[in-house]
Design brief:
The structure is a homodimer of 344-residue chains. The first copy, chain A, has 344 residues and is α+β, with helices and mostly antiparallel strands. Chain A is 48% helix and 18% strand. The first copy, chain A, has a five-stranded antiparallel β-sheet, with helices on both faces. In chain A, strands 4-5-6 form a three-stranded antiparallel β-sheet, with helices on one face. Chain A is elongated and about 85 Å long. Chain A starts with 7 loop residues before the first helix and ends with a helix. At the A-B interface, helix 6, strand 4, strand 5, strand 6 and helix 12 of A face helix 6, strand 4, strand 5, strand 6 and helix 12 of B. The structure holds a DNA duplex (30 and 30 nucleotides).
DNA sequence: AATTAGCACTCTGGCCTTGTGACTGCCAGC
DNA sequence: GCTGGCAGTCACAAGGCCAGAGTGCTAATT
């Protein structure tokens, strides 16, 4: 739908209404807008404008004789046309930088975990960070380590310091020698390719080997686990305590389902993967996202990048969230993360 | 305190009161006990008994003219003296066995994650499983794998199939040769010892080596991470959605703190570690546990064992939980886990 | 001496009523 | 095109009331 032809007044009313609603969570009346924002017109006039906005589907009344609240479309217009990012304070910047740049954090995983935490805290929403997309990475080497009778740890290393380990179960008869052989073949044939390419062409590339079939099969079968992350934590979700006291989660049953969703993680992982890795900030409002449990929520996401891979971070919170601030925070955090990773 | 000298009648009243309270979460009156449990005495008599029990601190009145509810001590006496474990149904047994014995589960970590899930579901409480105590394990080997410039993955394997991997950051100049050397020295000096012993005597044992000091230092410094679990998940907590709708969590602020506790995990990990590995079921009631956030909750824990290591599993839920059932479930699950691991 | 019936008293929770305040929509006048 | 005024609507808080559940105590009963 095209809302470019909103009058200046309509825009202003919508903007002020949303701003006020974000702060109070109460339906906003014409009077409040007239007084608080000194628009120089009377409540009655604003009422007329509000009726127009309601007909356009941008705001709605929870019941007669109540004020208005924004609809999803209302937020959409606000975000697309009216949003002015609010710059971070120095203190906020420092806080983010300090967490991300501290050299004591060991490994990407820990860094992402920390980042999701700070993101949650500073935004007062749910902070989310995703591990980099594995598919983009270029394989540097594969190691196979026997860790016990019948267990082999496979370590898949990717250019840029990413590594993923998967535990394989095997018949206990495999010898170290055979293992080295498999290792060698895998490395010869696959190193230097992107993981995405490997995934697509794996069985072709290994078709004509004369390796013990068992071991090879093992590797091929294990692929689902390689791609889905094995033991690694692919998504970090932190700060549920920040948002569950919001009135949006007053309904007990809704809350229950929400908590369950957080615990499962899988669905959210999919959601964030689907978020795509386009440049810059992406805002997904309410029912624009497919998960029923969080259709009164919005996502604000962005991506971090290094030379070799990229990943998604962002926040989740009630649609009634302070977008102008959050956009800046998420953007700044993603940028800091990108910087920090390029130094590593 | 010694409550062995409770009269038979007092015991019965306490037992019935707790049983009924567990079901309804409402204060229990003398009338209910007299009618429902047909003790053959009048409500008035029960009232007298209840007064005695109240003086002993086993039950209390939330307010005048309400029924009684058990105190922590009341539950304690119930659990110690009156509890009769309720055997599992065949269906429940099958459900647990099926999850634990399915061979498709890859690796101990995944198995424990599954187990905590089923434990949560079947008990309708919070299911918790802990990874085995590392200290007890006997080191079989250490591997050092370069995964990228400046990153080494250290894999510590322990007898019985346990392995833990820690990512080390290093100056980028380390050569593969030097790495092999370190690997060799570490293995020569440490293999065959228990991790606990290694932890205690690490610097002594490595004092007189002529290795590049840098690398060695790195290893020693990294120990905190080895012991605390590195990237591995040490505790699995599942089923928050089961218990948050219980009346015990009606208070919003309490709920918030509870959720926060779950998210942090560290505190709960400590709590479960402190739970000790004594044989059989341990029940911890209300304020007997040190964490303020869950002092209206109880823990029921047990341990699983293999030849080489052992770990803790259990559940967390409101003190008002069906102990007789839960005890059986936790015990059965721990036993099944032990069996499954001995087959692996 | 232990048990019980009876009774007065207390407190909670649900339910209804009422009143107030915050809105809107519309109309007539500026 | 805007605004003041006004009637109408609805949610919500406060107060009052009543029924129900439960106790403690005392006096009668076994």
């Amino acid at each position: 739908m095209a809302f470019e032809n909103l009058s200046e007044r309509e825009r202003q009313v919508l903007e002020h209404l949303i701003e006020h609603y974000i702060q109070t969570a109460d339906p906003v009346g014409s009077r409040v807008i007239a007084n608080k924002y000194r628009m120089g017109i009377s409540p009655a006039t604003i009422r007329n404008t509000m009726q127009d906005l309601e007909e356009l589907g941008l705001i709605q009344q929870p019941h007669t004789s109540a004020g208005r609240i924004p609809t999803d479309s209302g937020y959409r217009v606000f975000v697309d046309m009216l949003l002015q990012p609010e710059p971070l304070t120095k203190a906020e910047q420092d806080r983010i930088k300090n967490i991300i740049k501290q050299r004591r954090v060991k490994g990407l995983n820990a860094l992402l975990s920390q980042t999701s935490k700070i993101l949650g805290e500073i935004t007062n929403q749910l902070g989310v960070t995703m591990a980099p997309k594995f598919d983009e990475g270029v394989l540097t080497r594969i190691d196979l380590i026997p860790v016990a009778e019948g267990h082999i740890l496979m370590i898949v290393s990717v250019k840029g310091g990413l590594a993923r380990s998967i535990l394989l179960e095997v018949e206990s008869e495999i010898e170290v020698k055979a293992l080295r052989q498999v290792e060698q073949v895998l490395n010869e044939r696959l190193a230097g390719l992107s993981m995405g390419k490997i995934r697509a062409t794996l069985s072709d590339r290994l078709a004509d080997t004369n390796l013990t079939p068992k071991l090879l099969k093992l590797f091929i079968d294990s692929d689902s686990e390689i791609w889905s992350g094995g033991q690694a934590e692919l998504i970090h979700i932190t700060g549920a305590d920040n948002i569950i006291s919001q009135p949006e989660f007053a309904d007990r049953e809704k809350l229950r389902e929400f908590i369950k969703l957080l615990e499962e993680k899988k669905e959210l992982q999919k959601l964030f993967e689907a978020q795509g890795s386009a440049e810059g900030i992406i805002i997904t409002i309410g029912r624009e996202n497919p998960l029923a449990e969080i259709q009164n929520c919005s996502l604000v996401t962005s991506t971090y990048k290094t030379e070799n891979f990229s990943g998604t971070i962002g926040i989740i919170g009630p649609t009634r969230m302070p977008y102008s601030k959050l956009v800046s925070i998420v953007e700044y955090t993603a940028r800091s993360l990108t910087e920090a990773l390029s130094e590593m």
